[in-house]
Amino acid sequence: MKKDIHPNYRKVLFKDITTDKNYIVASSVETTETINEDGVDYPLVKVEISSSSHPFYSGKERSGGTTGRIDKFNQKYKKK
Where are the domains of the chain? Predict the structure, then answer.
């Protein structure tokens, strides 16, 4: 194996901003934000959808989105 080409894995906290749930997972994702959870500082990655907020896994329908993608699509492709 070649040296210094493999990613460095570390514990990262993924925060679902929709349901406010946290998941600590080993990841190589790059981030500049950090958060203190149970006295330990973790790199922070904010996500909009996780297993706790996805309609398929939660059984609940999601109301809209925080980014307004549907409105952007409708404006871009509306009939003139």
Answer: 1-62
